[in-house]
Amino acid sequence: MAQAVTTAAPRARRPFNSEVELETSANCLVNGFVPKPGMLYLGERGLEFRGESTFAQRVAWDDVELVSCDIFRGHVRTMDVHTSLGDVLTLTVDDDIEALRTMAAHVGRDKVENVNEVAPVEQPAGGLLSRLRGLFG
């Protein structure tokens, strides 16, 4: 039941969720850089972002593989929603903590991670300066 993430929304938009649990303003970062302002709707079927123009994205809860969040000083900077199709939906949300709680309730806390707490597998030996000295003598 995988759906394409990016869709061009028609003028008369039918709602993805019949019951919306959280509605908040958000920006969707297209290609990781270009912010598209709009509204984020979290409901029983999944999440839906509707841009102010005809831009819309929908992801069913069953298709969410991982939600990685950049949390700093109690605020969520960005949320990256990784889907089973390999797509990544990057969001900045106004009601960030409540949106994160709602997502975790649907996908499970095991699929939500803070990118600042995930340690790299292997740390390089020394700092940048010592690595440059090793390369250039």
Provide a compact summary of the structure.
The chain is α+β, with helices and mostly antiparallel strands. It contains two helices and nine strands.
Reported for the largest beta sheet, the result is: 9 strands, mixed
Shape: elongated
Order of helices and strands: EEEEEEEEHEH
- What is the spatial order of strands in the main beta sheet? 1-5-4-3-2-8-7-6-9
Q: Please tally the helical runs, counting DSSP H or I stretches of 4 or more residues.
A: 2
Rg over CA atoms: 18 Å
Q: Give the strand content.
A: over 45%
Distance between the termini: 57 Å
- Secondary-structure-based class equals alpha+beta
Beta strand count: 9
Integer average pLDDT: 83
Helix fraction, binned, reads 10-25%
Unreliable parts: 7-11
Topology of this protein?
Elements (H helix, E strand, L loop, with lengths): L5 E3 L11 E11 L3 E10 L2 E6 L3 E6 L3 E9 L2 E9 L4 E6 L2 H12 L4 E3 L13 H9 L1
Parallel strand pairs: 6-9
Antiparallel strand pairs: 1-5, 2-3, 2-8, 3-4, 4-5, 6-7, 7-8
Could you describe the 3D structure shown?
This protein has two helices and nine strands, in the order ββββββββαβα. Strands 1-5-4-3-2-8-7-6-9 form a nine-stranded mixed β-sheet, with helices on one face. By secondary structure, the protein is α+β, with helices and mostly antiparallel strands. The protein has helices at 96-107, 128-136, and strands at 6-8, 20-30, 34-43, 46-51, 55-60, 64-72, 75-83, 88-93, 112-114. 15% of the residues lie in helices and 46% in strands.
